[in-house]
Amino acid sequence: KSKAKGSDEKAAGSKPPKIVEHLQSKVVKDGDPVTLQCTIKGESAFDVVWLHNNKEIKPSEDFQYAHEGDVYKLIIAEIFPEDTGTYTCDAFNDSGEIFSTCTLDVEVPTDKAKGRPEFATYPVSLAIHEGQAAVFTAVLKKEARKVEWSKDGKVIDAKNTRMKMTSEGPKYTLTIPSAASIDMGQYVFTATDQGGQNEASVSLIVFNE
Asked: Residues in domain Ig-like (predicted)?
């Protein structure tokens, strides 16, 4: 499926979908059934695809696509450690594309023994208007030895003037005081300790209407 972008390609009278309620990151137990869901509204028809680590998930008995009204779901029959990672719900039509991202951390008993960082609160994806502030907050159960934020796979430099990274104990915040379309994308918070690393992914949508 092609995703048309640019004003020249927008269908007359068509409007892109909008995310009303974002995906929520969570820790799940190995072998459990898991359902991810987000709420998407659209005045015009749109398609939805789900991705795991940026690869499209083909609907199957193990990964079912479902929706009830405006609520779109990915139903995972049984979760395994290899299913850990970033999940994205991508909704699009000829007028545009929006997406929401979250992290699923499949808990394996041996992980706790390793002492890798654990989240007390995950950051949440955002959809805001241009000029508004975007604030992502991650809270760990205890301070990590090293943390970093990245955008679309590139680590955000502390000298970045558009964004501000702060920390207060185990609470870490990324703030974009005045968001613009160039800030749209996928953000990842990574925490590293002697026992390993853990990460959380979110997305930022900026409307310029």
From this structure: 17-105, 117-203
